[in-house]
Amino acid sequence: MKIAKNDRQEHILRIVKSQEVGTQEDLVCALLDKGLVVTQATVSRDIKDLGIIKVTLPSGMTKYSVLDRTGDVAPGRLLAVFSNSLLSSTCAMHLVVLKTLPGMAQAAASALDSIHLNGVVGTIAGDDTVFIATPGPEDAIALDRTIKDMISRPGSDY
What we know:
Number of helices: 6
Radius of gyration: 16 Å
Largest sheet: 4 strands, antiparallel
Number of strands: 6
Order of helices and strands: HHHEEHEEHEEH
Helix content: 40-55%
CATH topology of the largest domain: Gyrase A, domain 2
């Protein structure tokens, strides 16, 4: 059945929050199982509109995740500030160290704090460097992979 955009996006959010969805194809299949007729292109646009990102789990698997954000800031804007200010990400034991454009570390850390990615215990920002504490080395590796994916595809389907 054809469904309104808001209703479709509500279904997408519920599915991503309740299931391990690793690909757009998996999400399309989950929607079809609920009787909703959608295309992969529509789901791709909805993922971007909703600020859904692909995260790497400590096991190395990836899945879509809904950003747990604060305030009324649009998720796409947070992702743009974060990904556009980053130059590199390096894992160091239980820390992830980000290099940013000069003067952008605090903006990147603030955006990261607002995004509430899993595995982030806290951030410290200087002028062009952000230190991100994680619970352990596996969490740091997973977070580093997620961030590198965000850097490599800014503005694309996360």
